[in-house]
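2024-03-11 09:14:02 DEBUG pipeline.ingest accepted 1 chain
2024-03-11 09:14:02 DEBUG pipeline.ingest length=130
2024-03-11 09:14:03 DEBUG pipeline.predict start
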Amino acid sequence: MRKSMLAAAVPAALLIACGTSAVIPSYSDVTGVYWTRGTSAAGLEMTLSLNDDFTAQMSSDYLNGQPPIVESGTWLIEGDGTVSVRLTETGGVSMYPVINFVFRYGVTRLESVSWDRSIYGDDGLSMERI
């Protein structure tokens, strides 16, 4: 029995040591509002809402006295535990091209692992749950 417990613990420890989560988050874990400031564009605050009906809304405020740009779409949890966000419209009008993000989920944050670098720069997004 002890040997089989050790055999199960070693792969789990390796996953943790490699920074890979063996646990897929639930939808209720991920649902919420995330925020970031100071991406590669100075003077920008972004808020991402992941709603329990699987809709998503990203608000980008350039802090210039103009209303924020609000984009909306959908989100889901992929089989590997990452969170995919697909933004398809702004102001009720379809966007082309659509904007896709893939985030790694952490209990208090989302870290982008795939994004459009021509829009969001090379640093990606690190968003804190608020």
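2024-03-11 09:14:41 DEBUG pipeline.report The domain at 24-129 is CATH 2.40.128.640 (Lipocalin).
2024-03-11 09:14:41 DEBUG pipeline.predict end
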